[in-house]
Structures are given as C-alpha cells and as structure tokens.
Amino acid sequence: MAGEIAPAWYIKTRAEFFEVLARTLNVAGDLSASRQFWTYESIAAQLRAMTEWTAAGRTPTPEERDQITIGLIAIREFDAEPVGEEAEFMECLIQLAGYFDEWPDDPVAMPAQDRISDSLSPGLQLLLQRRIGLMSAAVHLPAGAATRASLHSALSANAEHVRLPGLPDSLNPMILDTARVEAFIEGLVRQPETVLRRLESRFLALGIEGLHLAASSPVPAEAIADGFDLVVGDEDGLVVDARMRVPLRLDYAQGVVAQAKTALHQFEDEVLALEAGAAVHFELMQAKWRRFAAAAVWRTASRALAEESSRFRADAKKAVDAVKRYLVPPWVGLPPR
Fold first, then answer.
1. Beta bridge partner(s), residue 176
2. pLDDT surpassing 80 at residue 205
3. 214-262 pLDDT, tens digit each
4. What is the DSSP letter of 176?
5. Cα–Cα 20 to 30 A to 317, which of 7, 9, 190, 275?
6. How confident is the model at residue 80, as a pLDDT?
7. Does residue 240 share a domain with residue 299?
C-alpha cells in the first residue's frame, strides 16, 4: 500500500483529526488512482469533502455529517480480519468517521495559551493562531494540523507523488525542499500585520514558483532563513497565490542554471537515442519528462537572475524557448510502471 498511516485508535483533538485526515487522504488518493475500485474512489471523495467542510475552522453541518459513510464502507467492504497497513487504514477511516459525525468540542481550543503546544515552533504557532493551511500537489495540511511531524510526513508524501525515475530531486521543480519550507514558515512571523491578515483562514500554495521552495530553487534555504518579504495579491479565495522577495545569491543561482543546462543536453541526447531506437512509448515519455523538468528549472533560475541584472536576460529568453519547445503533459498522476 502506498503511504504510511499511524493508527488513530481514539482521536481526541482537532489537531489529531486533521493530521490523520491528511495522511489518510494521501493513501486513499494513491489507492483510488492505482486500483480503480469504487470503494477507494468513494473514500477519497468523502475525505476530500470532509477536508473542505472543516477548512478554516468551519463546523460541518448535520446534513454534511450524514453524507459520510467511510466507516460503513470500511466495515462492509474490507477484509473482516485485516492485517498490517490495511488494518491501520481501516481503523483510521472508522475513527475519522466517528469523530466527524460527533464533532466534539476541541479540548485544546480554550484557553488560548493552552491551545498552542510548547513543542510548536514560532512559525507553526502562527499557522495555528491564524488558521493557515498548507497545500501543494500532494500536501494538504488544514489549519491546525501542521506540526513538525505532520509537515515532514506531508512533504515526504508529496515527494513520492511527484518523483520521477532518473531525475535527481535537485532538478525536479515539483519536489518541495523541507529545509526551505521550514525556513519559509518560520519567516512568516516577521511579516507585517497587513500580510498576515491576508493569510488568515486560507491555504498557502507552497508549490508556486515565486515562493522558491522547490528542491531545484535558485534560492537556498539559508537565504530564506535570513529574511524575505512575502507579497500577497488582492485576489480573494480559499487558496493564496503568494511570492517572496528575497536577495538572490548570484553564484548559487548560476550554479543551478549550469546544472540544469548540462542535464538538459544529456536528456536531449537520451530522447533522440530512444526515438532512433523505436523505444517503448512510456520509456520515451519518461525521458521527455526529464528533459522538460531540466528546462523548467533552467527557466526558473534564469528568470530570477534576469530580475537582478539585464546581463542574464538573453539566457532567460533561451530558457523560456526551451520550455515551450519541450513542453509535455505533467507526470503527476501518471506513476511510473
């Protein structure tokens, strides 16, 4: 079974509920995509609905609670004596269904000083206080669910979801880097009140190119930790599309460009060789995905450099042209086989 879930024998708090919900949704999504069976599709859809109905501190209505049948599905459709990961998955579904149906008062909701665990960093405390959720391709941490453990688990699940064989993580623009994400979260506490108010009760989209949180980013984690300004648009909605202004370390960014261009030439040679040898279609597509990823990393880094100095604009134009030339459908949702 894809993913790993710790059994939730008795969910006691909102934070526990959201953490188990996020992890279970990751597993259910993988099962739904790989097994194409109605039970997994229904479970994944219901878990997504539960996430939406409880986002930003919302209390689900009685009608919404009545629509959730994941507990019954787990009991009726799964093995009567499950073992291992299937038993853990089943138990999580049952516990989530029970907690969602009852929706008890959160014992850590009051008083405010008791709500914030001493184990949370200042950045994670801010996410909790401001009811800010986090999301990306396979990261979905509702408000109140972000702890260091749940964040690492979600980022690991995201990496597995978007990882591509033969492509180093440092050249994969869809893999989020844990050190960069943590530095970003801690840097939120230094943002002005006007920015923080724009983030309240919303989800931050972590995979946005302008946040520089990918493992392939031209901005290292140390630069983010040194300080940045977060720019949030005026658009309303549940998801925030933001970007950061951060001093660029030219040597580092140029190194990313050089690595991406070298890899692009290698992947181009690989594609041409496979095309000449009448390779299997999926093998050829993987090579094209790797080539496109390298071009995308080159474009992101060269754009950042071009914003710092006009002498990099010509190279940025070449990178944009390369992305257009090598554009292919995304590989997310199409796991290698």
1. 214
2. yes
3. 999 999 999 999 999 999 988 877 888 899 999 999 999 999 999 999 9
4. B
5. 275
6. 65
7. no
- Residue 131 structure tokens: 């009811």
Strands 229-232 and 133-135: unpaired
Closest CA to 68 of 102, 100, 92: 100
Look up residue 258 and give its two tokens.
């050089």
Return the SS3 of 60. coil
Cα 188 to Cα 184: distance, rounded to the nearest angstrom: 6
Tell me how many domains the chain contains: 3
Q: With 0.70 as the threshold, say if the pTM is over it.
A: no
pLDDT of residue 310: 95
The domain in which residue 62 lies consists of 14-109
Instruction: Return the structure tokens found at 139.
Output: 């990261």
Phi, psi of 192 (to 5 degrees): -70, 160
Amino acid of residue 206 = L
Of 181, 210, 245, which residue sits at a domain end?
A: 245
Cα 65 from Cα 133, distance rounded (Å): 22
